[in-house]
Design brief:
- The protein has 162 residues and is mainly beta.
- A six-stranded antiparallel beta barrel has the order 3-4-5-8-7-6. A two-stranded antiparallel sheet has the order 1-2.
- The radius of gyration is 16 Å and the shape is globular.
- The protein has a domain at 58-161: Thrombin, subunit H (Beta Barrel).
- Helix content is 15%, strand content 40%.
- The protein has one helix at residues 138-161; strands at residues 5-10, 34-38, 60-69, 75-84, 87-91, 101-108, 113-125, 128-135.
Length: 162
């Protein structure tokens, strides 16, 4: 599937420097310090949801590192690929059953705001998971909203430059 680039965000893997502490290139940015933000495919709404659609919030493609702890205190590292104000989509190394309660930790650029939120697994297909946030503060909600608005403004800037 050919996806359109709509903007960039600071690489979470190397914190925008282009290189990790061990001097290897950032995995998400290939040494540039910036990770690509892709336009959503048609299946993901890009305009305000219509009353007939299930989604309450717009979803945005991103590429962030996420850490997860399940109910058995097992810890996993994965990649957040989609984020919205009420949840996120991530790829994990092991499947977690739908309905499971987890603790997610992720860092949102550009100020590197670290969030630790409780979430429930709402969807699981192979190693792809959909999480709904169930416990987070107003400050965390605001940080997520601002990150999403930043992604949206980058897409607006890209359209103006076209």
């Amino acid at each position: 599937m050919n996806q359109e680039i709509i903007g960039y965000t600071r690489c979470e893997d190397c914190t925008g420097t282009g290189k990790r502490p061990d001097e290897t290139l950032g995995a998400s940015c290939w040494g540039t310090g910036w990770a690509t933000v892709l336009k959503q495919p048609a299946a993901i709404p890009t305009s305000p949801a219509q009353p007939s659609e299930r989604r309450r919030f717009l979803r945005y493609y991103t590429d962030l590192r996420v850490r997860l702890r399940n109910e058995q205190a097992q810890e996993f590292a994965g990649r957040c690929t989609i984020i919205a104000e009420a949840g996120l989509g991530a790829i994990l190394p092991e499947p977690i059953p739908v309905g499971g309660l987890v603790t997610l930790e992720l860092s949102l650029p550009p100020e590197v705001t670290v969030l630790t939120v409780q979430a429930v697994v709402r969807d699981q297909r192979g190693l792809r998971h959909g999480f709904e946030f169930v416990s987070f503060t107003d400050a965390e909600r605001t940080a997520i909203r601002q990150f999403c608005v930043g992604l949206m403004s980058q897409s607006d800037e890209m359209r103006e430059d076209s």
